Amino acid sequence: MENTESAGGIVLNARGEIALVRNGPDFWGFPKGHIDEGENALAAARREVAEETGLEYISLTKELGSYERYKGTPQGGDDTSEYKTIHMLLFTTKDAQLAPTDPGNPEARWVPPSEVEEMLTHPKDREFWRGALPHILTAQR
């Protein structure tokens, strides 16, 4: 089993919506991906958000912490060949247009916070969302 480190972002727009990305036919999650050699978590999160949502003008609000899980499968299960530590950051943006450039993540949507948990495919992503939600609601004020 390979252990990897990833970074990503929960991106909040001016309407209070969250950017989610589609990673497969029915797999929705936060924009995130592997930390490349020479990158830190912040740089990787900014790069992944830009690739998977098209949002380049994002402002760091706070670090939300990390969580661990197996790589997800397109069906929402676990691929036990890769165990990931995922570092998440909260960003805000004034941009409204989502335009993914990563072919592996062909779609991105703005989702109201009340619908995010239901839309997230991986159980560990949902668990992290529940824990991060108070920080996100505070950032909206």
TrEMBL record:
It comes from Candidatus Kaiserbacteria bacterium RIFCSPHIGHO2_01_FULL_53_29. Belongs to the Nudix hydrolase family. One of its GO terms (biological process) is ATP biosynthetic process. Residues 2-133 form the Nudix hydrolase domain. CDD domains: NUDIX_Ap6A_hydrolase. Keywords: Hydrolase. Pfam families: NUDIX. GO terms for molecular function: bis(5'-nucleosyl)-tetraphosphatase (asymmetrical) activity. This is Nudix hydrolase domain-containing protein.
